[in-house]
Write a structure and sequence with these properties.
alpha/beta; 4-stranded parallel sheet; two-stranded antiparallel ribbon; 10% strand; elongated; GH; beta-N-acetylglucosaminidase activity
């Protein structure tokens, strides 16, 4: 029926989206959802070009970055993805995901994400560790990063997100930029306080 997988997927997604009354949040995960899955690159992928052309503009497209689990996210890469998809991506961030190796638990601060990244995003989803309690530091430091981005924003754009001025990671927290190490230290203090509070609860 369809000349390509991308056209089939876009057609079905568009039909479901319209049948549901075009909800404000409707996410589509493409088959090529990171740079390493694109051939030869995101900007030259026939699949992504078709998705960008055919998918209705109100549908958000999920992207994980250069890889399925991306150590870094750059504004340059996201600009390339935005151009081919004709919309800013929704980042599905697998930085802390451990479902592929449950012997490991990731407890470091949220890092490797370029300052000013929010201007290039339609949204951001964090895929956490499978172990609930282990996600205190990931979520806490993500919140600190997010506040630093909001604190340096220029003005809201049409999609409701904030445009963010570019900041240097090496600058101190006093000027509003994000420091992963300082965010980790604050998260650890709050986590210890939370653990101590739980220890005092009846039955603990």
């Amino acid at each position: 029926v369809f000349p390509s997988l991308a056209q089939a997927q876009a057609s079905v997604a568009n039909e479901v989206y319209q049948e549901l009354g075009q909800p404000s949040v409707f996410l589509f995960c493409p088959t090529e959802y990171c740079s390493s899955l694109c051939s030869p690159s995101p900007s030259q992928s026939c699949y992504l070009q078709t998705i960008g052309q055919e998918l209705l503009p109100g549908i958000g497209v999920i992207w994980t970055g250069p890889k399925v689990v991306s150590q870094e996210l750059s504004a340059v890469l996201l600009e390339e993805v935005e151009a081919v998809l004709r919309r800013r991506p929704v980042i599905w961030d697998n930085l802390y995901a451990n479902d592929y190796d449950c012997r490991r638990v990731f407890l470091g601060p949220y890092m490797g994400r370029a300052p000013g990244l929010m201007a290039r995003l339609h949204g951001l989803l964090l895929n956490p560790n499978c172990e609930l309690q282990a996600n205190f530091i990931p979520i806490h430091t993500l919140g600190t990063w997010f506040r630093s981005e909001l604190g340096s924003c220029a003005h809201p754009d049409h999609a409701g997100m904030e445009e963010v001025a570019a900041l240097g990671d090496s600058q101190g927290a006093q000027d509003g930029s994000y420091s992963p190490q300082e965010a980790l230290e604050v998260a650890l203090r709050d986590w210890v306080a939370e653990i101590n509070q739980q220890a005092l609860e009846p039955g603990r």
